[in-house]
Specification:
- The longest helix has 49 residues, at 2-50.
- The protein has helices spanning 2-50, 57-102, 105-118.
- It is built from 3 helices and no strands.
- 82% of the residues lie in helices and 0% in strands.
- The two termini are 40 Å apart.
- α1 (2-50) packs antiparallel against α2 (57-102).
C-alpha cells in the first residue's frame, strides 16, 4: 500500500504541474487577447479621427487576432479541466482502495452488499430486506 501511495503522489504531482502550466499559458493568452482588443479599439479611434482608409483592415485583423487568442485560451482551459477531472478520478480510486484496505471486514461486506443492491434497478428499497421506518 505504501508503494501505491507513493506512486499516486508522484502521479498527482505530475498532473498538478501540467495543470499549472496550462493555467499559466491560458491566462497569458487571455491577457494578450485583452491587449489586442484594446489595440483594436485604439486603432478604430485613430482611423476615425484621421479619416484614413488605406489601413482600415488593421482593426479587423486585430479583432480577429483577439478572438483567436480567446478561442485558444478556451481550448487550453478545456484541457486543464479534463486533466483536473482525471486527477480527481485517480485520487478517488486510490482513496476507495485505501478505505477498502483499512476498513473493518464488517464495513467492507456491508458496502459490498449496498453496491450490489444499488446496481439492481428494479428492486425497490422496501424489497431489499430493509425495515420500513
Amino acid at each position: 500500500m505504501l508503494e501505491e501511495r507513493r506512486s499516486m503522489i508522484f502521479d498527482q504531482l505530475d498532473k498538478l504541474t501540467s495543470r499549472a502550466r496550462l493555467l499559466q499559458r491560458s491566462m497569458t493568452v487571455f491577457y494578450v487577447a485583452l491587449g489586442i482588443f484594446v489595440a483594436t479599439s485604439f486603432s478604430i479611434g485613430v482611423f476615425a479621427v484621421t479619416g484614413g482608409t488605406d489601413y482600415s483592415w488593421v482593426p479587423v485583423i486585430l479583432a480577429l487576432s483577439g478572438a483567436s487568442c480567446l478561442f485558444y485560451g478556451s481550448i487550453l482551459l478545456i484541457f486543464e479541466a479534463r486533466l483536473a477531472l482525471s486527477a480527481l478520478h485517480a485520487e478517488m480510486d486510490f482513496l476507495w482502495k485505501l478505505g477498502q484496505y483499512y476498513a473493518p471486514a464488517k464495513l467492507r461486506e456491508q458496502s459490498r452488499e449496498q453496491n450490489l443492491l444499488a446496481r439492481i434497478p428494479f428492486i425497490k428499497s422496501g424489497e431489499r430486506g430493509e425495515s420500513d421506518r
